[in-house]
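Sample pair:
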Amino acid sequence: MIRYVLVLLLIPTPVWSWGFFAHKQINRYAITTLPPGMFAFYKKNLVFLTEKSVNPDKRRYRVLGEAAKHFIDMEAYLSTDPAVLAKKPTHGIVPWAIVKVQKQLTQAFVAKNSARILKLSADLGHYVADAHVPLHTTQNYNGQLTGQEGIHALWETRLPLLFFESYNFFVGPACYIEHPFAHGWSIVTHTYSLVEKVLRVEKEISAQYPALLKYSFEQNGCVLQKQYSRAFSTSYHEKLQGQVEACFQKSILAVGSFWLTAWVNAGSPNLDELDGSIPIQKEENLSQNQTKELDDIRDCPD
């Protein structure tokens, strides 16, 4: 039998913040931040909330308006009235998307609709996590403006996959968020402040590594993939001084806190009375209307 091996040299990959692996882990660990009144229900649906955390990324290239919910170009917002730009989401609307879905989650809690609660919780976790990725807060999202193409996947996917086991996920309990939009805006503002270091450190490390050492090929099943080498990735990770881990931790705590806020705003309903878990395969049909919410996204601020 002849076996074929596909060699991928430098085929561009879609820019998905945090990568599928990290998004799943963030939603998973966010469950541990919840109070007793929420924990049992969310833990029972851990598989659903983990697996469906990546659905917004799966929708972003086939649903009109979805992509804008994953990022924000802070350079544009800092130079123009944010309320004006939010109406034309060319530069991203992730803080507005977070509050929009959080309010929808509150409504789902009020209605005690377990399917909607789980679907919206998974989506909300994704958008909140996106807001903590530095390269999702800048127009130079993949280093394309500075000759650093590929840095997006390096920071959000390669580093978490390599160093996840060394991270500390004891982030404390979720907290009620008094002003969700202001909180979301403070998240992206802080995240944007990290961009300079993300880019600068990569350039510094790249200067020390010739191409033959900067990249390597790794077997993934029957596919041979070009990756940033472990040596280069380790040097970059160490020079960032815990930045990726800190963003991971902040993401987990923020996801739990936005879930908690939606629940408290709904009057802290008894989740033990809900139907319980729902099969993962049913999720796709739960909320087709979610794709039409872009027009009123700007109405979110509290």
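Residues 17 and 130 are 6 Å apart (CA to CA).
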